Amino acid sequence: MNVQVQPHVTTTQRHLPFVVLETEFQTATGLAAVVDFMPPGDGAHLVRIVVGRSGRVAFQTELVVRFNYGAAVPWVNRLDDGSINAIAGPERVVLRTPVRLHGEDLRTVGEFTVEAGQSIPFVLSYGPSFQDPPPAIDGFDALTRTEAFWRAWSDRCPDVGPWTEAVKRSLITLKALTYAPTGGIVAAATTSLPERLGGVRNWDYRYCWLRDATFTLLAFMNLGYYEEAQAWRDWLVRAVAGSPSQAQIMYGVGGERWLPELIVPWLPGYENSSPVRELGLSHGAIGTRPCAAARRIGLSGNGLAASGRRHLGGARRPPALRSFQNHGLGRVRSRGERAGISSISRVRRTMARDSRRNPRARFRPGP
Question: For 159, left (φ over 0), alpha (ψ -120 to 50), or beta?
């Protein structure tokens, strides 16, 4: 969903408190802002509000809907209430706005003008095509609820000195990666961003990678956000249920295990870095110590310890995972090797053990 001003002079962009993005347009005729956000809670909605600040600003709007990673052009019609309804296969999106829109070259376009003190909402809602259209929401009420939700949640963060606001912003980002119905935490909201331009390590991070989620949980618990940690602990219990030897490095947000990798050949990728991957467990590889995440956050029948670091009661690493050869911390597809970071970790554990047994064996600074 794209909006453009005419004539366009300068643009500034900033994050308002929490997860609201504001883009300001200064033109020769006035000043206007575009406010974008996704409200928390039930449903899947993207809200855009165009706000007039001074004078008059003319806009053009364009909506281009393509499902299935850009391959499926939807059937578009108008619902009884005038909303734009786009359907392809099992999916649909509905656009609700007071702006007059029409179809043109497989796009939905329109023009409008906003004046000082005027606000015009656009609400794009997603839902299954075989059910009733997703219910309408009020964009202005959704903005108020979104700001209130994130304010109340972030205000639980303790004061950490001059870095408090930066820490809150980081916590909000991590919270936004949490799938509320299950407690699963995705590594990122992106797929196929390359580790190196032109490279092939373009993984799909929209899934629950245990290693990444472990660091997220430690950040939550260090700042007292135990509800998120408990929800993820419950998700983990469900996800890894069964044979320990079948533990995976990643799961779906609902705990899904079968994640076949698909290549999307018709997309060029970021900066022509292909392939573009969808889903994908790295050839079924079990990465380095997938049970370490459970150990570090203290998975047990009695819940989480206050520190979040209590070990599994009497649990041992399953035989299939005891081999010292592994894939290290990187998402590589080579055979298991002696990974440097794993070797260092093992040496450190050995040194710590020997140090406890014989204090004189501790390393001392050189001369």
Answer: beta
> How does 317-327 read in b/e, with b if 16+ C-beta sit within 10 Å?
eeeebeeeebb
CA-based end-to-end distance of the chain: 66
Q: Other CB atoms closer than 10 Å to residue 295's CB: what's the count?
A: 16
| Amino acid identity for residue 269 in this structure | G
At what angle are helices 210-222 and 164-176 packed, to 10 degrees? 140
* C-beta of residue 293 within 8 angstroms of C-beta of residue 211: yes
Strand partners, 49: 35, 121
Other Cβ atoms less than 10 A from the Cβ of 127: the count is: 17
Q: H helices of 4-160, where?
A: 139-154
- Beta bridge partner(s), residue 122: 48
3-state secondary structure at position 117: coil
223 contact partners, CB below 8 Å, separation of at least 6: 157, 158, 160, 167, 171
- The length of the chain is 367
Residues 6+ apart with CB under 8 A from 155: none
Indicate the domain borders of the chain: 2-146, 165-337
Place of tokens 């304010």: 151
Residue with tokens 């053990």: 353
Tens-digit pLDDT profile for residues 220-248 = 999 999 999 899 999 999 999 888 888 88
The pTM (predicted TM-score) of the whole model is 0.76
pLDDT digits (tens, 9 = 90+) for 73-83: 999 999 999 99
Smallest CA-to-CA distance from 185 within 155, 220, 152, 150 is with: 220
- Distance, in Å, from the CA atom of 295 to the CA atom of 297, rounded to the nearest integer, reads 6
SS3 252: coil
Q: Cα 222–223–225 angle (5° rounding)? A: 100
Q: Which of 251, 210, 244, 258 is nearest to 322 (CA)?
A: 244
